[in-house]
Design brief:
Layout (H helix, E strand, L loop, with lengths): L7 E5 L4 H12 L3 E6 L2 H11 L5 E5 L5 H15 L4 E4 L14 H29 L3 E6 L12 H21 L4 E7 L3 E2 L7 H7 L8 E2 L2 H5 L18 E3 L16
Parallel strand pairs: 1-2, 1-4, 2-3, 4-5, 5-6, 6-9, 7-8
The structure holds nicotinamide-adenine-dinucleotide.
Length: 257
């Protein structure tokens, strides 16, 4: 059964990494997609590659800019008529020791990870409310939003805020049958993290000294269930951590927490 057949979705930061993998899974589950990324070449190549699995459109822009978020939502409505799902995936890191953490890096990380999630989430939520048939918004958190990682002050803070923003959105949008959830993956090797591999594995934050590769997220972490109609009675906000031995209770686990 195609769990997203007939649904239309926006996935941000889908030029590579986790966003692209989510886009692939959505298409394979029957959704129609509008994907975006800030890097023009990457989104062109990604859309071309993803089109083998279904109907996919692309836009280039910065999710931290209101005008782009408005344009993206308008475009989705034009392509699909209606919007069902938003995945706020785009995100960046800044690896800087706290004592030297620059204000510019702090501002940029907050702008993309937190403000971008707010801006696009608000735009899409307004459309979902106007459509009157509910919908789903997934925000990308991180275990860094629950457990501090060294030299990542802005990133950690931004992801912790995404968790609380998600809970607030979920509480306010529940009366409209709009589910808002946050997923908090542990360490996954992508372009974002490839330079941190050794440091992270050695620093002790991951008790089992292991990591995920991006497609594992689709197998272990049943992301599609978060927007599937099967989950329509689950209105509350959850932040699920994909395990690599890290969760905020510090337990070693082998499944969803
Ligand atoms: N890789 C991990 O270990 C890990 C763990 C937890 C959470 N995450 C989160 O998952 C998300 C994706 O991470 P990833 O590892 O795939 O990273 P990635 O760098 O491989 O992919 C992120 C994509 O977002 C795009 N992007 C960046 N800024 C943007 C902006 N302002 N507007 C639009 N697009 C923008 C990038 O160009 C890139 O294509 C991020 O939110 C990240 O914080 C990643």
């Amino acid at each position: 059964m195609l769990r997203l057949k007939g649904k239309s979705a926006i996935v941000t930061g889908a030029g590579r990494g986790i966003g692209k993998a989510i886009a692939q899974k959505f298409l394979q589950e029957g959704a129609r997609l509008l994907i975006c990324d800030i890097v023009p070449d990457m989104i062109v190549v990604a859309a071309e590659e993803l089109s083998q699995w279904g109907e996919v459109y692309r836009m280039t822009g910065d999710v931290s800019e209101r005008a782009f978020c408005e344009a993206l939502v308008k475009q989705a409505a034009e392509y699909f008529g209606e919007i069902d799902v938003l995945v706020n995936n785009a995100g960046i890191v800044a690896i800087e020791p706290f004592l030297e953490h620059s204000e510019s890096a702090w501002d940029r990380v907050m702008a993309v990870n937190l403000k971008g999630t707010f801006l696009l989430g608000q735009q899409v939520a307004r459309v979902l409310v106007a459509q009157g048939k509910g919908g789903a918004i997934i925000n990308m958190g991180s275990t860094n939003g629950h457990v501090a990682e060294r030299e990542s002050a802005a990133y950690n803070a931004s992801k912790a805020e995404v968790v609380l923003l998600t809970k607030t959105m979920a509480a306010e949008l529940a009366p409209y049958n709009i589910r808002v959830n946050c997923v908090s993956p542990g360490f996954i090797i992508t372009d974002l993290t490839k330079n941190q591999v050794l440091a992270i594995l050695l620093c002790g934050n991951i008790p089992i000294r292991s990591h995920s590769v991006v497609l594992e997220i689709l197998r272990r972490w049943r992301i599609c269930l978060l927007f599937s109609p099967l989950m329509r009675h689950h209105l509350s906000s959850v932040s699920q951590s994909l395990l690599m031995g890290v969760n905020y209770l510090g337990r070693l686990t082998n499944g969803l927490v």
